[in-house]
Structure formats: structure tokens, C-alpha cells
Amino acid sequence: MEIIVKGMDPMAAHKLLTHKGLVDKIRDELRFFRSWIDSPLTMGAVSPSGPELAQRIASFVPVRPGGRYLELGPGTGVVTKAIFDRGVAQRDLTAIEYSPDFCHLLQQRYPGMITLQGDAYSLRSTLAPQVAAGETARFSAIVSGLPLFNKPKEQRRALILEALDLLEPGAPFIQFSYALVPPVKPEAGLFDLARTDWIWANLPPARVWVYRRPD
User: Fold this and answer.
1) pTM of the shown model
2) Does the 48-212 domain belong in CATH 2.40.30.20?
């Protein structure tokens, strides 16, 4: 984009960048909607998360040197970008996405990130190639955009327990949803749960739920 706008009038360059951003946003909305039409049970919404929600999700990611991070169900990469904007390097983030089309899009947008096409509800199996390659350290945070309420309660609980086993002690499993109740209720001695207020700027309004093992 720097090559495109080089030598242009600043106002014209701004308009070009704004236009391109709007076009990309519309394209992502259409991709998301088509995927929802094709596979409604694998999608949590009919459109990508808004920037306010994405930033709130990313705010819970503890950025530190040498940290490893995992994102489940990134879709078109709105939350992914917010994670990178927070300071996580592409090489430190692994994404698990079920849709081959979204995987291809993510690989184009974030070539430094590890993108795995697979089932996030079978975390260990999907992550097996990384383990075989020597990546055995636990994650510093797991961010989830999965539509958990599309699954039975037992399967939701199993996913969170498996995810917590892959995290460093005290590290967060970060999930958003549009529901009034948490995807999985906290269980004393097993995992704690914190939540944000409603993010009204997102459509539909959402909140963020953060699961952790107790200290």
C-alpha cells in the first residue's frame, strides 16, 4: 500500500486507504455470511466481531517475551489483528480454523502465523503436528471465538478443561458470547470465571468470559 500511495496528495491517499479498508470489510462480511449460510452450526454469528469487542478480548492476553498463544475459530481474523496490535508477534500465535476458505484467507493475511485447519473441539489431535515438531511448551493464553452454545454442555465443558490443561498456570482461556449466561459455569476448585460488562458497540452486544485454573 505504501507503493500505491507514494507521491499522492495526502487527502487522496487517505481516501484511497479508507476506501480499501471499507471494501475489505464488506468482503469479509460477505465471506462470513456465506459461511454462515453454508454451515450455520459452525459459526457463532452472521458477521465478524466488531473492533471494540476484538480489542476487549485482546486486552486479556498477557504479552511477554517467549509466550505462545492459541486462537480458536479466528474466522476472517478480526480478533487476530487485535492480538497482534496488542504486541503478540505472528510467529508466536497458532490459529485453529475449521473452514478451509478462512484458513486460506488467514494464511494470506498473516503468513508468519501458524494456521491449522482442523477441529478445535479435539485440541490435542489438531495440535499434534506442532507437538511432533517439538512445540511442547504450554500456552500463555487461549482466545476462542467458537460458537460454544451450538454444542452440548458436556462438550463445552470438555473443551474448556482440555484448553486449561494446555495453558500455563493462571493463564486465561478467553471466550466471548452473546448470551446472558456463561458458556460453562465456574466450578469451585476446578476453574474460576470472570466476565466483562456488555460491549454495546458490538452488534449484537457481547461480553467476554475469562476462565482460569485457581491459584
Assistant:
1) 0.79
2) no
